[in-house]
Structure formats: C-alpha cells, structure tokens
Amino acid sequence: GQTFDPTGMVVTAYFDDDSAVAVTDYTYSPSGALTVSDEEITVSYTAGGVTKAAVQQISVQARQLVGIRIAAQPTKTAYVDGEAFDDAGMVVEGAYNDGSSVNITDYTVDKETLSLGDTSVTVQAGGFEATVSVTVEKSVLESITAVYDKDGAFVPDETIEESLFTVTATHGTGGLEKKYVVTDFTFTPETIEEDTEEIVVSY
Length: 203
Hints:
203 residues, mainly beta, 3-stranded antiparallel beta sheet, rod-shaped
C-alpha cells in the first residue's frame, strides 16, 4: 500500500564521452501503491532522445496489524447488572507495521452482557487486545420476599432467629430483572407476643 520513496537514491547518467552526471529528472515505475508481488523499481532517464533504465531491487512486506488501542471511549460506561454492553461511540484504532493507523470495526468483545463485579470489557482484534473500563451496579429495588424456615406455629415469647430467614431482593423489571439473596435486612418484632400477627422484614 505504500509508494516508493526515492529519498536518498542517487541516479547517475553515464555518457559516451566518459562523463557521469547525477540527475534528478528521472522517472520510476511503479510509482503508485506497491504490492507484495513488486520486487523492483525501474528507474528511467532520458537525454538527447535516448532513454536508459536501471533497476532498484526492493522488498514489500504485507501490511500487518501490530496492535490496537481504544482511540475513543464508548459513550456509555455505567451499567446495571444484566445490561448489554453498548459500543456506541467507541473507536478502535489498529496500528500497522508500516507506521499507519486505521480505525477498525471487525473487533469482538469478551462480554455481551455485564454482571456485578465486572470492571472492564476486553476488545479483541487480530490477536490483540485493549480494555474499556466499566462500572456495574444493581438496578432499582422493586420488591423483596422473606421466608422463615420453621416447622409448626410460633408460641409466645419465642425468639425470632435471623439465621432462619431467607430474604430475596428483586431489582429491575422485565429483561433486566435480577434476584439477590441479601443478609443486611432488619425485622420486627424480635420476640413473638400473644398478639403478634406478623413479622415485618425490611431491606
């Protein structure tokens, strides 16, 4: 994809009077973008209606990806548990062995759906990786359920034991609904009285 750069090349024209002159008004071919099949540059010079040519050997390497980076962060980096990663606004730039950099779109990500504890998404392309930092939180609390593991009825003066509760909190709705067993709840009363009709669990 690069073109031939004649910088530093000295072209000398030899004449039949045994003189030699360094010339600059030469032409060369190919002058356009080089391919891996190109092995030589033909340099031509014309004087007095006579054209002579010389060959300069070259080697052309295939352009190869040597690394990637996140040139622009995605617009969205804060998520709730269960939400899909959104790459809108993200620009992934590939660096090549010819010194060029090009935005690439044929990348993959290691997480399509984000979960609690995720702090980054890894972007992969051509065997190289770059990361995007994210935060993941629980969505809005919608409801809780409480189950007390006891056989038989309560009796007066019975102590309510926290360890026998299983409290489940539901966050979000629809496709983002998530359930978590929680331990930082409170309850009242702590002891059953004769007129106790319910135990209220709060979270």
